[in-house]
Amino acid sequence: MKTKIIIMLILGLVSVSTIQAQKQRDDFKIQVDGLGCPFCAYGLEKKFKEFKGIKNVAIDIETGDFTFTFPSDKKLTLLQVKTQVEEAGYTPVTIKITRANGEIEVSEKEKE
């Protein structure tokens, strides 16, 4: 009986730590102007992979939506994202960051 309780406690702790590890990522959504083909999307993705730790990258060429997650402890800023998009050769229309703690940051154009 004690063995079952100990196993259940261990499984519970592992589950909680896994959930917390997943929650420690910020969500980024950028509307990008100028994406016209898969090669363009690849170039943008490649530029952002310079940020070590980027995951869950998704780019919709038709809408210009570019999303990814990034470790919250590295605190990627709106300015860094804007600069990276521009260095890749594109124009960021809007940028929205949803931090792991629930805080939301948006670029100036989206605030209007």
TrEMBL record:
Q: Which PROSITE patterns match?
A: HMA_2 (PS50846)
Task: Indicate whether Ligase appears among the record's keywords.
Answer: no
Which CDD domains does the UniProt record give? HMA
Reply yes or no: does the keyword Transmembrane helix apply: no
Domain HMA: residue ranges: 26-93
Instruction: Enumerate the UniProt keywords alphabetically.
Output: Signal
Q: Which SUPFAM superfamilies match?
A: HMA, heavy metal-associated domain
Please list which residues make up the signal peptide. 1-21
Where are the membrane-spanning stretches? none
The identity of this protein, by name, is Heavy-metal-associated domain-containing protein
Task: Name its species.
Answer: Winogradskyella immobilis
